[in-house]
Design brief:
Elements: E1 5-11, H1 26-37, E2 46-51, H2 57-70, E3 76-82, E4 85-89, E5 99-103, E6 118-119, H3 120-131, E7 136-141, E8 156-157, H4 162-169, E9 187-191, E10 200-201, H5 209-220, H6 226-244, E11 251-254
Parallel strand pairs: 1-2, 1-3, 3-7, 7-9
Antiparallel strand pairs: 4-5, 5-6, 8-10, 9-11
Helix pairs in contact: 1-5, 2-3, 5-6
Length: 265
Amino acid sequence: MPKRLLVVAVGISVYANPAIPPLPTCRDDAQAFLNALRPLSNQPLLERVLFDQQATKVQLQTALEWLAATVTADDLAIFYYSGHGASFDDDSGDEHDGKEEFLCPYECGLEQGRSSFVRDDELRAWLTPIREKAPLLVVLDACHSGSAAMAPAGLIAKELPNGLVKQIIGAAALPVRTAHDPIPSNQMLLAGCHDSEQSYILPGEANSLFTAKLVEQLAAGQSDDVQTMFEATYRAVLDACDLAGIQQSPKLTNGMNSSLLLRVD
């Protein structure tokens, strides 16, 4: 078990760019996730929390640099994000899946160009110094399918429509990437949905669907093993999707060599 839990939690419900639709639950998502972690530790969490206007690209990078500088080999580092995701159809063929994927910081789209986003390779570079020192759990409650406009009536998809993404990027060229990215070692990623899907906020709910079910499993305390907890979360999300008539399948990507335990002894 880890000796300490160190967390960077980001929740963005409102964006500076008026063209980006608000997400009513994301700030509460991050707070709910933190609240669910606290009983798992016998000491206060070491945390950096970024809500709304605090969650600029620079501040996000700074918070992850703090995490890299502070964590030790006996700790567990956690990065949680709830907000808009985005993707760009890469016509050049540089991306193996045909898409460049992004997270959307608070000021996303105020200036034109791909630097307005946090690109997947940028995030990987910011996370690498952390996982080189300690096990890293990444939880992303966002989506990158590019089809937010197709969300069923009454539901909110946590991504930017392709047309808005293309407008923000403009004529900027994307970096050339010619190889499949390997799964990062010493890191486990819990994603709210697969790349081709949407991550939803259901009508009237206090939290996004994936975060709500994950927090329920954390609170239940039936297992300290993250993979076991994810499997229960996965089933709960699918059950909720069946009732709502939607499709959202959480995804686990595991680069760990052993079980990842959340509870601090």
